[in-house]
Amino acid sequence: MKILSLAIAAVLIAAPFAQASASDADFVTKAAQAGLAEVALGNDASAMGTSDSVKRFGQRMATDHSAANEKLKAAAASGGFKVAQQPSAEQKSTEMELKAMSGAAFDKAYAAQAVKDHQGAVELFEDEAKAGKDASLKAFANATLPTLKEHLKMAEDLAASTGK
Questions:
Q1: Which domain holds residue 119?
Q2: Structure confidence by residue, pLDDT tens digits, 3-42
Q3: Which sign, positive or negative, has the C-alpha torsion 37, 41, 44, 46?
Q4: Cβ distance 158 to 100 under 8 Å?
């Protein structure tokens, strides 16, 4: 009976930690996928954009998110979290849709997507910064948030200039 009680107690104590770990793992997956998608879309925008502002913004996204991806890998490694190696299927589909466009239509759609993506990223990183359990991931989220918020503002300005 004591062994059963100890086993039940161990499960009850471990359950919140397993959930927290799952939450942190979910953050790592989503953050990695989003970062990889931003690099891909940024490269597309710098190559396919019509306006100089879209090209510059795309290059900035590719550069900044590449750096953030490396920092995420380091933060995730300290906690033993697996980092996604490619964007999600939905993100890949979005990229294909954008790549099928050209000219001003591409610029407008890319800018709108950048706003949407960065709104989601800010929310994801704010949640991890507030509720994350892994100290390295929480620190990464806090350190990255100001850049993501700057990107969101830049994307909103870009969308306004391309006719949203």
A1: 2-161
A2: 434 344 444 444 334 344 569 999 999 999 999 999 999 9
A3: negative
A4: no
> Are 128 and 119 spatial neighbours (Cβ–Cβ below 8 Å)?
no
CATH number of the domain to which 97 belongs: 1.20.1260.10
What is the count of structural domains for the chain?
1
Q: What is the pLDDT of residues 47-89, one digit of tens each?
A: 999 999 999 999 999 999 999 999 999 999 988 999 999 999 9
For the whole model, what pTM was predicted?
0.85
With contact defined as beta carbons under 8 Å apart, do 150 and 60 qualify? no
